[in-house]
Amino acid sequence: MDKVRDWMSQPPICAPETMTLPEARRLMHKSRIRRLPVLDSAGRLTGIVTEGDINRISASHAHDVREYNLYHRAADLPLRDFMTRPVITVGPDEPIIAVAQLLLLHRISGVPVVEGDRVVGVITESDLFRRMVEREVAAE
Question: Would you write out the chain's pLDDT as a tens digit for each of its 140 residues?
């Protein structure tokens, strides 16, 4: 039975919780990823930020004073101020089918892979699709 460790992307690309929104956007664009596990100063997972989270915040339109101030301060926002927590995670030895079920159940497209208190990888829908296609092509 296939395990998460056989399918996950590694090493994980993570960000400190002090990273700002524009820095996170640049890192994600440069790395061609859509989610960033967020780590505290000790390297422990504290949250996750997705491309959708960043787009929702930075593309906000000003309708009142509070939104106006948020929109114009978006460049100053550290990830800890808008990351999702708690984070759904999986372990590297979990069966791959359990990850697929988890993604479907929670309607998410990827999760960090955690071993102990360290992020060791990320597994996404793209990883699952890529491996499925590789297997089918190899079987032909």
Answer: 789 999 999 999 999 999 998 899 999 999 999 999 999 999 999 999 999 888 887 765 443 334 445 555 666 789 998 899 999 999 999 999 999 999 999 999 999 999 998 999 999 999 998 888 888 888 87
- In 3D space, the residue among 54, 47, 53, 50 whose CA is nearest the CA of residue 33 turns out to be 50
Which residues have C-beta within 8 Å of that of residue 95, sequence separation ≥ 6?
A: 1, 2, 3, 4
Task: Spell out the domains of the chain, with CATH numbers in brackets.
Answer: 4-139 (3.10.580.10)
pTM over 0.70: yes
